[in-house]
Write a structure and sequence with these properties.
Layout: H1 18-29, E1 35-41, H2 52-67, E2 72-78, E3 90-92, E4 98-100, H3 106-110, H4 130-144, E5 150-153, H5 154-159, H6 164-172, H7 174-182, E6 196-198, E7 205-206, E8 209-213, E9 218-222, E10 226-228, E11 231-233, E12 239-243, E13 247-248, H8 251-262, E14 266-270, H9 271-274, H10 277-289, E15 295-299, E16 303-304, E17 307-308, H11 319-323, H12 328-336, E18 344-345, H13 350-364, H14 372-385, H15 398-404, H16 410-419, H17 429-449, H18 469-483, H19 488-501, H20 506-518, H21 526-532, H22 535-542
Parallel strand pairs: 1-2, 2-5, 14-15, 16-18
Antiparallel strand pairs: 3-4, 6-7, 6-13, 8-9, 9-12, 10-11, 16-17
Helix pairs in contact: 1-2, 7-10, 8-10, 13-14, 15-17, 18-19, 18-22, 19-21
Length: about 550
């Protein structure tokens, strides 16, 4: 493989930001505008954040090329003429709500194994097909990211005839196609024909092609068994003839066909393709399809909580779920990082990702010290992540926002944030509103992870609680200490000292505080939390007055 088609070489440059190197390579490859940047996926089930890899990396490259004055189309192919190979464990309606198979007609899916996704009924009954449903769901998830993507259906490309010329060319040169693919796959035999026909009797896709008549534009077939995910989908045995628009090319040929029909200039892909389908795709593109392959780029897969993303195993999280706890610009930042470094996307530790983004933003606005390389990266990446660069923006630290989320009083949230210096006096109203929106997200994060911030401050009324005399006296003394204006760590230390002074077990004394403020037996680190609340309220509550 030459350097021109090595999907790793495009990233092997001195650029501080990987997308600048890709944009350089795409400009050298493209023969004029519009430049076409493509991703793609088979709509096999619930879209998840793994699909954002191609969508957001393509978006970043597209934006850089637009900065350079180019017209850019960002397209995403739905490989919806692929066959339904297995029944997923979970599905999702168009609002992104995940459901189990018991809530839909799973039997209808089982009866349609082996058929193209666009021939399988929508299990929710709201779209034209299974393929249309999950393509639409992915389109909606993409809209939430603020990315303008043109979705293209493979089924429509076949049925409208846009794939017909390239399909005819592949079949006309099927001996060359067979020999080329045999370099990469052992299962290619002398009878192999690079085409799947759709059986007119049962609707399944079959790869047993018995004759090709290019003058008539038809292929003859026998519907035979198909292997799918280790299982066998029984063919019906029917023998028939169909035209070129009523079937599909195998993936290894369909991918280069997309490059030719759509005029693709750049496409990123996971490392699983780098050693298999990409080299064969390059070879097939040049020697069978007669098109120059686009600039390719490899990205590393990322894990979710240390485990591989898997729709079949249920280890997924959707874009909508992530945007409930993260601003879109923070999510984009995750995909703006170096593509070849493996990372874990952890909901449990999402605060660390937010902190990274906040630092990138602070570096961009020259608010913190940074190395030259970090500053150069921030200058290139940050403007691509936000809808508008605005220096007046305000960010409340994520874990502090989670603390604020323990109260549902909007005025109190703002009051505490101002008192702690996280909202400047001169902050514009839009900046305050956006800053406080992080509290809602951090509150949801605390709830779904059940972490140390997942507690609700009982501010409106005091929980019912009775204490023995030593505990009551210690609480009264703690109230006096808080009234003196001590900081959080000093209050925390005083809690330990008072427990010892009044011979109250320290765990029970903390528990008394948690019952007063949260009506619970546990909670966050109590001293710093109390220091963040308004002093009058804390003192009155410790005295059991309100």
């Amino acid at each position: 493989m030459t350097e021109r088609t090595d999907p790793y070489a495009v990233l092997d440059t001195d650029h501080a930001f990987w997308a600048d190197a890709v944009a350089d390579a795409v400009e050298q490859h493209s023969d004029g505008d519009p430049i076409v940047i493509k991703g793609g996926v088979s709509p096999s089930g619930v879209p998840h954040i793994g699909h954002a890899n191609e969508i957001l990396r393509c978006y970043i490259v597209a934006e850089l090329l637009r900065e350079r004055g180019h017209e850019v189309r960002q397209v995403f192919t739905s490989d919806d003429r692929d066959r339904l190979r297995a029944i997923p464990r979970r599905l999702a309606d168009l609002d992104g709500n995940l459901v189990g198979l018991g809530e839909v007609d799973a039997g209808a899916l089982g009866r349609n194994l082996g058929k193209p996704y666009t021939d399988v009924p929508d299990p929710f009954g709201c779209c034209d097909s299974y393929g249309a449903h999950f393509t639409e769901l992915l389109r909606r998830e993409t809209e939430k990211l603020g990315v303008d993507v043109e979705f293209v259906s493979n089924t429509e490309l076949y049925e409208s005839g846009q794939f017909e010329d390239v399909t005819r060319r592949v079949l006309e040169h099927r001996e060359q196609a067979r020999a080329t693919l045999a370099e990469y796959q052992n299962k290619v035999d002398d009878d192999y024909v690079p085409f799947f026909a759709r059986c007119s009797d049962c609707g399944q896709l079959t790869e047993t092609i018995t004759d090709v008549d290019l003058d008539a534009g038809t292929v003859s077939y026998r519907c035979t068994d198909a292997e799918a995910g280790g299982d066998t989908i029984d063919g019906c045995g029917h023998e028939g003839t169909t035209d070129l628009r009523d079937g599909k090319l195998p993936w290894r040929f369909e991918w280069p066909a997309q490059w030719k029909v759509l005029g693709v200039d750049f496409e990123p892909f996971g490392k699983d393709h780098a050693e298999g389908s990409w080299p064969s795709g390059v070879d097939i593109a040049r020697n069978v399809v007669d098109v120059e392959p686009p600039v390719g780029m490899v990205y590393e897969w990322f894990t979710l909580e240390g485990e591989a993303l898997s729709s079949s195993e249920g280890n997924i999280v959707t874009v909508g779920e992530v945007l409930d706890i993260l601003e879109p610009e923070v999510f984009r930042y995750f995909f703006g990082k170096e593509p070849l470094k493996q990372r874990d996307f952890s909901i449990e530790r999402i605060d660390q990702l937010v902190d990274e983004f906040d630092r990138l933003e602070a570096v961009y606005f020259d608010e913190v010290a940074a190395e030259d390389s970090e500053r150069e990266l921030a200058e290139r990446l940050y403007p691509l992540l936000v809808d508008e660069v605005r220096e007046e923006r305000v960010r409340i630290p994520y874990t502090f926002a989670a603390v604020l989320g323990m109260t549902d009083d909007p005025e109190l949230r703002e009051e505490i944030a101002r008192r702690e210096g996280h909202i400047p006096d001169d902050a514009p109203e839009w900046a305050i509103e956006e800053a406080l929106s992080r509290v809602r997200r951090a509150r949801e994060w605390a709830r779904i992870t059940e972490n140390a911030f997942d507690y609700e401050l009982k501010r409106a009324e005091m929980p019912e609680a009775e204490f023995d005399d030593p505990t009551a006296a210690a609480l009264d003394d703690l109230a006096e200490f808080v009234a003196e204006g001590h900081d959080g760590e000093e209050i925390q230390a005083e809690i330990f000292d008072l427990a010892e002074e009044y011979d109250v077990p320290v765990g029970e004394f903390f528990g008394a505080g948690y019952r007063l403020f949260f009506d619970d037996d546990e909670g966050p680190k109590l001293g710093p939390f109390l220091a963040r609340l308004d002093q009058e309220f804390v003192v009155d509550r410790l005295r059991r007055e309100r």
